[in-house]
Amino acid sequence: MNDKEQFQKKLRSLMELDGKMTEERVRQHFQGIELSDGQLSMIMGYVSEQKKETVLTEEEEEYLREYQEMLESVKQVSEGEKLELLKQAAAGNALAREELTGCYLGEVVRSARKLHREGIFIGDLIQEGNIGLTIALGSLKSQDGADEFIQSCIEREMRRLLLETENKNVGDHKMIVRVKALEESISKLEKELGRKVYLEEIAYDMGISEEEVRSILKLTGEMPDEEISENENIDM
Fold first, then answer.
1. pTM for the whole thing?
2. What is the Rg, in whole angstroms, of the alpha carbon atoms belonging to the chain?
3. What does the DSSP 8-state code read for residue 75?
4. What span is annotated as the signal peptide, if there is one (predicted)?
5. CA 12, 14, 16, 20 torsion: positive or negative?
């Protein structure tokens, strides 16, 4: 397992811990991985954001109403029948696994409500939870501890989506910051020099490579994809 995979695994397991999250507790959880102050701050911010209660949108409320109505039509089984189905499923019975799916769909909804975060449609969480449920039932080896195992698989897939979305949001935010810094650099240089500025001048002012400047400019739509001369003016 590489450092990135180890970090992500630690972050996922951190989100499953209960109680107040302190810097000391985070450092202890990430024991074996040296965290910079910046990384610690990012993790604390992430945990705070992810554990914050969110309000469902009208669209999400309507989705849940329709989904709950669908669940009412699913056949319900007694606790004894459920245990027998778990035993059969653990033995490889595909029909038992199919019947068990209906038993746990309500748990998927409850987990989705618990883990729901602003910016992620709750239906997407439910879909990921259903995938986790399918994986759990397909790999079930024993009825002992089955509920905990299935629940962990459901929430694992939901947390994976949450983490992927967070990583994307962090990347998008960083790029927005860099574009803003680029625009400020160009504006400042044009005022100081009284003319359009060159690629190499922007790179020097920002303390980054010319290739990085090109990449940011392409995102703004101000530079064509084809290569440009180092001495060509940048017009924004």
1. 0.54
2. 25
3. P
4. none
5. negative
